[in-house]
Amino acid sequence: MDTTIEKSFVEQLEENQNLIHKICRLYTNSEDAHKDLFQEITIQLWKAYPKFRGDSKFTTWAYRVALNTAITLYRKKTRSLTTVEFDSTLHKINQDEYDYEEEEQLKMLYQAVQQLNDIDKALVFMYLEDKDYAEIAETLGISEVNARVKMNRVKGKLKKILNP
User: Fold this and answer.
1) What pTM value is reported for the model?
2) Domains in the chain and their CATH numbers?
């Protein structure tokens, strides 16, 4: 593959790796599972990158790929992942260390969000990332009105979980 494509991909991935870490945090319960999912999302992004035309923002496209990967992998009953060997030194990706010592409130929020179904998790994640309803709708493949209605319902679910 063209080195300019590789360079562009690495730059985009480095700039947006925190969003991938956040998705991993939503769909995993351990550091090892987090690392496995991060690696699998990175591989899927790399495989799909040549098809990225730039019709949408890179982050919107990456959200879609990452969420689809996370949902697909963690819906399966078996938790073993078949991964492709990926040598991060080959692509010289600088991976920021992710801080697992989150504040207590954030931990409670993640625990509450993990009780939601996969689509609701994705919706909350994008909402917390300050994505507008148009981008949320585009990423999830639903209407903007549907995204707003779903978000209001999810807020109610989270209130019940956090304040029983």
Assistant:
1) 0.56
2) 1-100 (1.10.1740.10), 102-164 (1.10.10)
Q: How far apart are CA 140 and CA 29, in angstroms?
A: 23
What is the Cα–Cα distance from 123 to 83, expressed in whole angstroms? 27
Q: Decide: residue 66, CB within 10 A, 0-12 exposed, 13-18 middle, 19+ buried.
A: buried
Torsion-angle region of 54 (φ positive above 0: left; ψ -120 to 50: alpha; else: beta)? left
- pLDDT score, position 2: 66
CB count within 10 Å of CB 73 equals 21
Are the CB atoms for 17 and 96 separated by under 8 Å?
yes
What count of other Cβ atoms lies within 10 Å of the Cβ of residue 16? 17
